[in-house]
Specification:
Helices cover 33% and strands 21% of the residues. It is of the alpha+beta class. It has 3 domains: 39 residues; 204 residues, Beta Barrel (Thrombin, subunit H); 116 residues. A hairpin with a 2-residue loop joins strand 6 and strand 7. Helix 8 runs antiparallel to helix 9.
C-alpha cells in the first residue's frame, strides 16, 4: 500500500468508492464522512448494514509528530528563559579578575574535587553565584581585600604618625637611654649621645678647650674619647672613641627644622650631675636666627643637660640641648641646636652663622637685631662656667661625706653639735666639735681635714673668679645653694 492509500492521508467514500483526503469530510458525490449510508437492496448485490457513526482513530504516526513538535518547543523556550536569567559577565571584568571565567563547582561525591559546569538540559533554577547582586557583593569584597593588602605592602618602614601608633614614653626612654652618656671634662660635666658606635655628639662649651674627655655610661663604665671637631659658633662638638663596641646602642637623627609648635619632646641628660634624668615638654617654637636654627622648648633644661639629645615621640633626635634662660629671667625658656647643623658638621660642611656662639646669636635676636654688649656675653658665659665648676665640687663634697661618717663612727669620741649640709662643715665651727679624736686616728683625721680644706679653697677660688667676671652676686649665691655648698664658714 502506497503512502497516499494510507488511512493517515485519505479515506474511502462508501458511496462512490473514491479516495478523499483526510482534510476533507465530504466527498464530491455529496456523501459526508460522518453520515450513514443507506443502500437500497438489489438482487444482484448483497445487503450491507450502515456504518456506525464513529470518528476514525488518529494514526499513531500523527501523534508522534505532534509530540516531537511540543518537545522541541519546550526545549527552545527553556533555553531562552535560562539565557535571560544568567547574564554574561563583562569581558573587561573577567580579564581583570573581578569574576571567574569558569567557576568550578565542587562535586558532592568527592571533597575538594572540581568539575566543569554542565549545560542545563532544561529551564532549571539559576545557581547562587549567578545572582547579579551576589556577584557584585563578592567583587566588592575582593576589591576591598586587595586594597588593604596593597596598603600594607606599600607601608614599608614608614614611621607612624598617629598617636595610637607611637611607642609609649617609657619605651622611647628605655631604648634611648643606653645611648646617652655623661661627658666629664676639665671645665665641668655635661651630656652626650652616640649616633654611631664610635661617634658622640655634645656641646662645644662642655668640652671647652680639652683635647680628650671621659665618657661615663649609664652603668658606670668609663671610656676615653678624643675631641675631633669643636664648632663654638654652633656650640657643637664631635667626639670619637677607639675600639668601639659594635653593639653600642645609637640614636637616629630626625629633623629639627620640620618640627611643629606643640609637638611633644623628651630631653635626656645629666642635669646637676644626676645621670639618666628625663624631662618632657613641648616645642614652643622653631626659630631661625642669624643662620642658626634653634628649637625652643619648655622642657626643663638645667646645667649638665648641655649636649644631651632632644627627642621627638618616635625617639629620633631633633636637637642638641644647649642653653636655658635662668629662672630669675624667664620660666620654661630653653633652646636646642637643630640636629641639621650637626649633620652638616659631620659631613664636613661647617656653616657660617652671625654670632660667635648660639647665645650671642640669640641675644642679638632678642634685642631686636642689636648685638648684645661684650660684657653681657662674657658675663653669661662666666655664669655657665661657674655653674659647671660648682657642680663638680659638689660631687667631691658628696664623696667626702662617706669618709666623714666613717671617721665619726670609728675614730671620734664625743658629739658633733649642729646641722650642716655636709657633716664635715663642723670642722670650721669650734662649738660643733665637742669630743676628741680617738688614739691612733690622728693620721686619718689629718687626711680628712686636708681634703675638706682643698674643697673649701677651690670653692672660694671659683667664687672669686666668678665675681671678677662680673657674675651677679645673686647668681653665685643661688648656684652654691642648689649644690649645698652655701656655707658661711668658708671664710672663717
Amino acid at each position: 500500500m502506497t503512502d497516499q492509500e494510507s488511512p493517515a492521508f485519505s479515506w474511502v467514500c462508501t458511496a462512490c468508492g473514491r479516495r478523499v483526503p483526510t482534510k476533507l469530510t465530504k466527498c464530491r458525490c455529496g456523501h459526508d464522512l460522518h453520515s450513514p449510508l443507506e443502500v437500497q437492496p438489489s438482487d444482484s448485490a448483497p445487503r450491507v448494514a450502515a456504518l456506525p457513526d464513529v470518528e476514525p482513530p488518529a494514526a499513531p504516526s500523527q501523534k508522534a509528530a505532534i509530540s516531537k513538535m511540543v518537545a522541541a518547543f519546550v526545549v527552545v523556550a527553556g533555553a531562552f528563559y535560562w539565557m535571560n536569567q544568567r547574564p554574561a559577565a563583562p569581558v573587561a571584568q573577567r580579564a581583570a579578575g573581578g569574576l571567574p571565567t569558569s567557576p568550578p563547582r565542587t562535586s558532592p561525591g568527592a571533597s575538594g574535587a572540581t568539575t566543569s559546569p554542565a549545560a542545563p538540559a532544561s529551564a532549571a533554577a539559576p545557581e547562587i553565584d549567578s545572582d547579579p547582586a551576589a556577584r557584585i557583593a563578592a567583587a566588592l569584597a575582593r576589591s576591598k581585600a586587595a586594597t588593604a593588602n596593597s596598603s600594607q605592602a606599600g607601608a614599608g618602614d614608614t614611621r607612624p604618625t598617629s598617636g595610637a601608633d607611637l611607642p609609649s614614653l617609657e619605651d622611647v626612654v628605655s631604648r634611648a637611654m643606653p645611648a646617652v652618656v655623661r661627658v666629664e671634662a676639665s671645665a665641668g660635666v655635661g651630656s652626650g649621645f652616640f649616633i654611631a658606635p664610635d661617634t658622640i655628639l655634645t656641646n662645644a662649651h662642655v668640652v671647652s678647650s680639652d683635647r680628650s674627655v671621659t665618657l661615663r655610661r649609664p652603668g658606670g663604665a668609663t671610656k676615653l674619647a678624643r675631641v675631633e671637631t669643636a664648632a663654638t659658633e654652633l656650640d657643637l662638638a664631635v667626639l670619637r672613641i677607639s675600639s668601639p663596641d659594635a653593639n653600642q646602642p645609637v640614636l637616629a637623627m630626625g629633623s629639627g627644622a620640620d618640627t611643629r609648635a606643640g609637638q611633644e619632646v623628651i630631653a635626656l641628660g645629666t642635669p646637676m650631675g644626676l645621670q639618666n634624668t628625663v624631662t618632657r615638654g613641648i616645642v614652643s617654637a622653631v626659630r631661625e636666627v642669624g643662620g642658626l636654627t634653634l628649637v625652643q622648648t619648655d622642657a626643663a633644661i638645667n646645667p649638665g643637660n648641655s649636649g644631651g639629645p632632644l627627642l621627638d615621640r618616635s625617639g629620633r633626635v631633633i636637637g642638641i640641648t644647649s642653653l636655658g634662660i635662668r629662672s630669675s629671667v624667664a620660666q620654661g625658656l630653653s633652646f636646642a641646636i637643630a640636629i641639621e647643623h650637626a649633620q652638616a658638621l659631620l659631613a664636613g660642611k661647617r656653616q657660617t652663622v652671625a654670632g660667635t656662639t648660639p647665645l650671642a646669636t640669640l641675644n642679638g635676636a632678642m634685642t631686636g637685631g642689636n648685638a648684645a654688649s661684650g660684657s653681657d656675653i662674657a658675663r653669661e658665659r662666666a655664669s655657665t662656667d661657674y655653674e659647671q665648676a660648682v657642680a663638680q665640687l659638689a660631687r667631691r663634697a658628696d664623696a667626702l661625706d662617706d669618709r666623714w661618717r666613717s671617721f665619726i663612727r670609728l675614730c671620734y669620741e664625743g658629739r658633733v653639735v649642729g646641722t650642716f649640709d655636709h657633716g664635715w662643715f663642723a670642722l670650721w665651727d669650734q662649738r660643733a666639735m665637742q669630743g676628741t679624736v680617738s688614739q691612733g686616728c690622728g693620721g686619718a683625721f689629718s687626711d680628712l681635714r686636708q681634703a675638706a680644706e682643698t674643697i673649701r679653697h677651690e670653692v672660694t677660688a671659683v667664687d672669686e673668679a666668678a665675681r671678677q667676671a662680673d657674675v651677679y652676686p645673686g647668681t653665685r649665691r643661688e648656684v652654691l645653694r642648689r649644690h649645698h655648698l652655701d656655707y658661711t664658714g668658708w671664710n672663717r
